[in-house]
């Protein structure tokens, strides 16, 4: 059999990894990045864009840019009334109560599975190019709280993308596999997963290589994007005070602000100050206006204090549901790029009283675990 890849199909970003020479490694996409935004877009001329290039034009082409599709996969319209309000594209319901995503550029409707399949197809295609063989089998991860319908829909998305999905595994289980925690005896693990769009906490028990999910908790609307948005809103109100210009309605400006805010957030995880510099952000009668702003880590933490507080409750709930207190947790695993934020790290340490495990890149840990599982199924790993 050929190579089996492991895929972390995320709400905002996705990653593909494979076993090479007995070690799991992440495969960069055609653009050279190790993570691929889970975004699909259609241009006015009907071209399909997937990944980075789709994300870069999201604000300018909101009706035909499909993001966060994972929130709709395997769900009926009646279950996702809140989510429907939060996306910029049009979501419709067919006669069976199923969700359809309307693409005005092509004047046709897609299911959530078909949209997710485009992301999977790109990941598998780029992996195939790198490995020099066609990829036809994969292990795909899903959140621990996904129900049967959501798991089946994820499998269907794989099938539409031309992949035989050998197994669907839980994201916290995959993260634990990446750390080799399946080799431990009777340990209790807490997985703290703060992704781009969602926040999940899971408590797992491992013994004899078998994982049992004891509890899961989370906040389906808390993630890195919210941290970016806090910076965007601050920049908008600041700019309005200074120039009396409201950039809220200017899509081009908003796209640039969003990208600059994400970059500043990332910088503030390693630096104490970041500079946001956007020349020619808009023009008034007085001429072109530039946005120049410094943001310190302290200011960022102050802007995001409400978000940081929201991360506390699910951890406490997960412990309560597992009937454990924090001293009983043997390992803390961090997943998701947003766990690099220093304030989040110190929050985890404060609640659980121990340093989290961070030797594997948090963006890639789930895909690496999926690749380990894929290697087991392909007979490459004992």
From TrEMBL:
PROSITE patterns named in the record: HSP70_1, HSP70_2, HSP70_3
Keyword flag Transport: no
Domain of life from the UniProt record: Eukaryota
Coiled-coil stretches noted in the UniProt entry, renumbered to this chain: 247-274
N-terminal signal peptide: none
Matching Pfam families: HSP70 (PF00012)
Keywords of the record: ATP-binding, Coiled coil, Nucleotide-binding
One of the record's GO molecular function terms: ATP-dependent protein folding chaperone
InterPro entries per record: ATPase_NBD, Heat_shock_70_CS, Hsp_70_fam
Name assigned to this protein: Heat shock protein 70
